[in-house]
Amino acid sequence: MIITQRAAGKATGLAAIGIIAAMIWWTHLAVEYANEQRRVTSEIGRRLTELRLVTFEYHLYHNERARVQWDTVSDMSTAYRERPFPRAGANANSRRIA
Question: To 10 degrees, what angle do helices 64-81 and 2-61 make?
Answer without folding.
Answer: 160
